Amino acid sequence: MARQSISFTKPNDEWLKTQVDKKEYSSKSELVNDLIRQARKQQVEINWIRAKLEKAENSGFTSDSKNGILAQSKSLLND
Question: Which Gene3D superfamilies match (predicted)?
Answer without folding.
Answer: Antitoxin ParD1-like
